[in-house]
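Workshop exercise sheet. Pairs work together: one partner reads the sequence aloud, the other fills in the structure field after running the prediction. Swap roles for the next sheet.
Pair: D.N. / O.F.
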Amino acid sequence: MSNMPVNNEDKSFFNKIIDFVKQSIQTTFKYFWSKTLASVVLGLIGYGFLSLIKIEHAGIIGIIIGVFNLVPAAGGLIASIICGIIAVFQSPLSALYVVITILVLQQLDQWVLTPLIVGKSVNLPSIIIILSLIAGSLIWGPVGIILAVPIAGMVRAFYMVFLRREKEHDKQQTVDINNIDEDDKPES
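Structure field:
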């Protein structure tokens, strides 16, 4: 190791990198935690509604709904098939109700729960969550759905750590010509 002194700019940049990594890890953790919370809420809503309309095994179906909600893209379809098979033994009409319930719950999750719960958790506006999920799915498919919100959070963290602070620093360096004292004005 060398004993060369480290200047303040290098320390500042190193601290920014550490801050960026911390914020990125926090955002990713918060995303997966809040997505799990949204899945639990979805499973409970499914259980409650299916119990209300007297579907047998509503508890198991609610658990399946919640667990498969964590699976991007195909989770709703898989849950619909499994739960439809479970409910068809009660009656074909029950299976239809279960499948329709799951499809409605998937829309509720996609357009309401995920943007609200996840958006607040990772500190991103709901529209950014929706757009990042759409972009992620179009670019990388199911993997993109998993990675879209954490990547959007990392972009936000990068902006906050590197670009926003630089803009604030630049604003502090500029002089407001309206606030210059008469003694400080250059002579013409």
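Discussion prompt: Helices lie at 8-52, 58-69, 75-88, 92-122, 126-140, 142-173. What would you look at next?
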